[in-house]
Amino acid sequence: MSEILEKVYDPGRIEEKWYRFWEKHGLFTARADGSRPPYCIVIPPPNITGSLHMGHALNNTLQDILIRWKRMQGCDALWMPGTDHAGIATQNVVERMLAQEGADRHQVGREAFIDRVWRWKEESGGMIISQLKRLGCSCDWSRERFTMDEGLSRAVREVFVRLHEEGLIYQGDYIINWCPRCQTALADLEVEHEPKDGHLYHIKYPLEGREGGVVVATTRPETLLGDTAVAVNPDDPRYQGLHGATLRLPILGRKIPLITDPHVSLEFGTGALKVTPAHDFNDFEIARRHHLPAVQALDERGRMTEAAGKYEGLDRFACREKILKDLKSDGLLVKVETYSHAVGHCYRCRTVVEPLISKQWFVAVKSLAEPALDAVRQGRIRLIPEAWEKSFFDWMLNIRDWCISRQIWWGHRIPAWTCEACGRVTVAREDPAACPRCGDRRLVQETDVLDTWFSSALWPFSTLGWPDDTPELRLFYPTNVLVTAFDILFFWVARMMMMGLHCVGEVPFREVYIHALVRDAEGQKMSKSKGNIVDPLELMDAYGTDAFRFSLAAFAAMGRDIRLSEERVVGYRNFVNKVWNASRFTLMNLADFEPDRPDALPLSEVERWLMSRLQEVSGAVGAHLEAYQFDQAAHVLYQFIWHEFCDWYLEFSKPALAPGVDEVRRHHSQRVLADLLGAILRLLHPFMPFITEEIWHKLPGAAGSIMTAPYPVGDPALMDPAAEAEMGLVMEAVTAIRNLKAEMNVPAAAAVEVAVLSDSAQALAMLERHAGAVRLLARVQTLSWNPDGGPPAASAKAVLAAPGGGSVELLMPLAGLIDFREEERRLNREMDKLSREMAQAQKKLANEDFLAKAPAEVVAREQERLATFTEKLGKLKQHQKRLRALLG
RNA sequence: GGGCGGAUAGCUCAGUUGGGAGAGCAUCGGCCUUACAAGCCGGGGGUCACAGGUUCGAAUCCUGUUCCGCCUACCA
Fold first, then answer.
1. Parallel/antiparallel/unpaired status of strands A82-83 and A145-146
2. Are strands A807-813 and A752-758 parallel, antiparallel or unpaired?
3. Which residue is nearest to nucleotide B38 (CA to C1')?
4. Contact indicator for A644, A568 with CB cutoff of 8 Å
5. Residue A193, phi then psi, degrees to nearest 5
6. In angstroms, rounded to a whole number, what is the distance separating the alpha carbons of residues A226 and A229?
7. What is the pLDDT of residue A23?
8. Is the pLDDT of residue A522 over 70?
9. Nucleotide nearest to A286 (CA to C1')
10. Strands in A207-293 per DSSP E
11. Residue A3: predicted pLDDT
């Protein structure tokens, strides 16, 4: 026998070959000519600093499944790829490189630094792209974009200027989150709050001109150096006589007022709140209400300023210790409690962020949020699963202005120029040569750059060519679906909605499929610091990309975290190997197949059964993909291919495929087998692109790439309930006989006789038609049909329900094979089980309310069940009686 | 503080309108049956977290409790 395929599938060789083939033949490239229905997904652009992690692998596998599926359905499928310049993260990477050389960016200078970043990007920034290719992603690389490339930068500038003209972008001094390490402002979202065990310090502020004082409670004693008031609730009885009093700030002795503000809680701490407008968000608001001055006690590096007096130059945490010591010696530290509270950290570098007052650029998002809210409310954008809508609404309704300026160099520089002569700020699409107000040519451009998410927010239309009116934009916008994890729902998805609606006037995507987060096998979020990262590339190396992708799809149940278990990947690797071997079997049997030779035979019963199942499975896979139920789609395919096609169909087909017996029948079976395998490969292709392409090219009659072959859809005309019923009975009979043998400890290979008894002529006819298959698969030597005089009493018996009513009894004579007592024990077990189920059904049917109120079909089904149980049990009882008589 | 999600077989998890508890792995027993030992055949295993309620009927809907996870928030 000629070895067409290796015995075990070896993915390594094949994957690279086919990816090159696809790229070479331009199979990923969208036509964008309107000749086919468009289907478009924009990739969530990975950071250029990143390398492929599990989140990427899942996210992109799901997108590729959708894109390959739609492409096979005949759509002009565009998967728009690209990367994100990741301002802070990328700058950090290059700064670290400089630090190793003993330099910093200020020594190098802005221009040279940016050159350096570009150089780094060219050398190392493409890693994730090659990793996506390794994963099999069928992105249209001919259209790959980068947030800092020329076209996208133009889109960024256009949007900035437009929003500024509309008064939706403004500049001003406000309190913002500041990262003292990255040296830049952060948006609220970029601050991650972590619970931290700290202390609540009770500090006494002495009253000016009278005895006593007011005790405040704070977690950050060092900020008292910037206090400009103490506030109490106006209704707090403890402080009624003190409103308007003057207090002396500890250590510095500065005089500050005691004010009242309803914001202050009566319950918390002492009811007295120290007000530090320059270093606390609430205090900033209070100060605005009361026109209090702000004293900046901390600088941009987190060190104390000269306003801190003798503490000037100290680091904020060192200062805290020093101040506590000084307060103690002054007798002003009244009490220290342990206290757990949330502390904000920079999402890029984990440094504790510092609220600071600073001049920054902001987007007024309220008016942008409203249309996005409406789009979701009206269903023009659908969030899937829907449960996310609530979070989305909550966030959008409480949205605060978005701080978009960053004090870094790598990014889109804000297109604003200040005139050195008259101070006028000009915001323009083109770099201005002179001040439009006074004509002076001494213009200084804003040094800040924009938040990376500002350019990401434009991604669905900037990548399609906006602000130009391109064919791509016309054809593919709005895109069909955005596939993402929930952790960037606010960061990115919401902002794309706002920008898309505002700039293009239409939603950026019609659906948002929000998938789970990948965690490790213990359910922990993967992170470098925990050391629990599972590298997707290692899994691909070990088990093959197809197995890995199929695993991810199978894991992707909606609305739940995924725990990555390597054992399951092994399981799906085995499935891939099963597909390989079923193909190997098929191809071995097709070695002499002539695809063009006519085949006059109609489909056999077995073939009609599997064809029927194939239609149902095809329909189900399509419906599941349509609903983003990737796990269900994978599961349906797995069950069908392994447990119906391989376990049963291939076994059934063996006799007809035997060479030299009936060549006409053999040729017919070959043709059907080739068709079936072709359909299975096509169904699997979006999940397992590599192995399916490899086998497709060896399959007689298959032409071109499987990528362009039509995806099977269920054809109702090929559904065949009669064939399904018939084969159902046959398979049940085979299983029942195998079961009798196994339970009776009869060797599987033993030549046994089986007598079939039935009151159903139809059932008998069905089994007789497939007698050969039953004998082969159940390993029975002879079958007898309703034998005269009945079968011997000394038998093991199984009872099946016949499809049209009645029953089928299978009797296997035990004489000389086993101990009858074993059969008695087995019978008891079986009868116990049946009795339990029967009692359940009887109880239901005895309930008059059930008969009266349950739908007729439910009642009928229950009656049918009861009848079946009763019949089976009766037959088994009778058998038991005869057996007992025999045993004495 | 507010919100969301989860608790189903030893493990990891499905279970879409309420109507016969499932899969994979693990486990036990038997098989080199000429595609596959990464395999084949067969078996065992669950008070669906707990307590109430609605219903003829609840893993599924409602209320409450416990435990776990996440998001979000201006009580310092």
1. parallel
2. antiparallel
3. A574
4. no
5. -90, 130
6. 9
7. 97
8. no
9. B74
10. 213-218, 229-232, 246-248, 255-260, 272-275
11. 45
d(CA A15, CA A150): 34
CA distances from A304 to A297, A309, A315, A346, A655 (A): 6, 9, 6, 20, 88
What tokens does A745 get? 């400890």
How does DSSP classify residue A224?
G
Transcribe A383-421 into DSSP letters: EESTTHHHHHHHHHHT---EE-EES-SSS-B--EEEETT
Residues A810/A801, Cβ–Cβ less than 8 Å: no
Instruction: Work out the angle between the directed axes of helices A545-555 and A11-24 (0-180°, nearest 10).
Output: 90
What is the identity of the amino acid at A153?
S
Q: How much is the average pLDDT of A823-828? A: 83
A337-378 pLDDT, tens digit per residue, is: 888 888 888 888 888 999 999 999 999 998 999 999 999 988
Written as one letter, the residue type at A206 is P
Contact between A277 and A228 (Cβ < 8 Å): yes
This prediction has a pTM of 0.93
Q: Give the integer Cα–Cα distance in Å for A334 and A221.
A: 12
Predicted confidence (pLDDT) at residue A796 exceeds the cutoff of 90: no
| A765 closest CA partner among A736, A804, A718 | A804
Q: Is omega for the bond preceding A478 within 30 degrees of 0, making it cis?
A: yes
Looking at the C1' of nucleotide B69, which residue has the nearest alpha carbon?
A523
Q: What pLDDT is recorded for position A209?
A: 84
Instruction: Name the packing angle between helices A689-696 and A11-24 (round to 10°).
Output: 80
pLDDT at A432: 92
The 10 Å CB-count burial string (b at 16+, else e) for A662-684 is eeebbbbbbbbbbebbbbbbbbb
Q: What's the whole-number mean pLDDT along residues A487-503? A: 92
Nucleotide nearest to A9 (CA to C1'): B38
Determine whether the distance from the CB of A848 to the nearest atom of strand B is below 7 Å.
no
- pLDDT greater at residue A1 or residue A563: A563
Are A761 and A806 within 8 A, CB to CB? Answer: no
**How many other CB atoms are there within 10 angstroms of residue A318's CB atom?**
14
Residue-wise pLDDT for A237-272, tens only, equals 888 888 888 999 988 888 999 998 888 888 888 888
Of A883, A759, A868, A752, nearest to A827 (Cα)? A883
Please tell me the distance from the alpha carbon of residue A219 to that of residue A217, in angstroms, as a whole number. Answer: 7
Question: What burial letters (b/e) apply to A781-813, b meaning 16+ CB within 10 Å?
Answer: eebeeeeeeebbbbbbbbbbbbbeebbbbbbbb
ω into residue A721 within 30 of 0, thus cis? no
Burial class (CB in 10 A: 0-12, 13-18, 19+), A607: buried
Q: What is the C-alpha to C-alpha distance for residues A449 and A410, in angstroms, rounded to an integer?
A: 7
Tokens in use for A461? Answer: 């239309």
The pLDDT, as a whole number, for residue A42 is 97
A387 touches strand B (CB under 7 A): yes
d(CA A33, CA A51) in angstroms, rounded, equals 34
| Residue in A395, A400, A401, A403 with CA at minimum distance from that of residue A376 | A395
- How confident is the model over A412-456, as pLDDT tens digits? 999 999 999 999 999 999 999 999 989 899 999 999 999 999 999
Q: How many CB atoms lie within 10 A of CB A780?
A: 22
**To the nearest whole number, what is the mean pLDDT of chain A?**
90
For residue A639, give both structure tokens: 């069950």
Positive or negative: CA dihedral A651, A653, A655, A658 = negative
Instruction: From the CA of A560 to the C1' of B7: give the distance in Å.
Output: 13
Interface confidence (ipTM) of the complex = 0.95
Reported as a single tens digit per residue, the pLDDT across A640-659 is: 999 999 999 999 999 999 98
Q: Which two tokens stand for residue A481?
A: 């679906």
Closest nucleotide C1' to the C-alpha of A489: B71
Nearest one of A61, A76, A80, A92 to A146, comparing CA atoms: A80
* Strand B within 7 A of A263 CB: yes
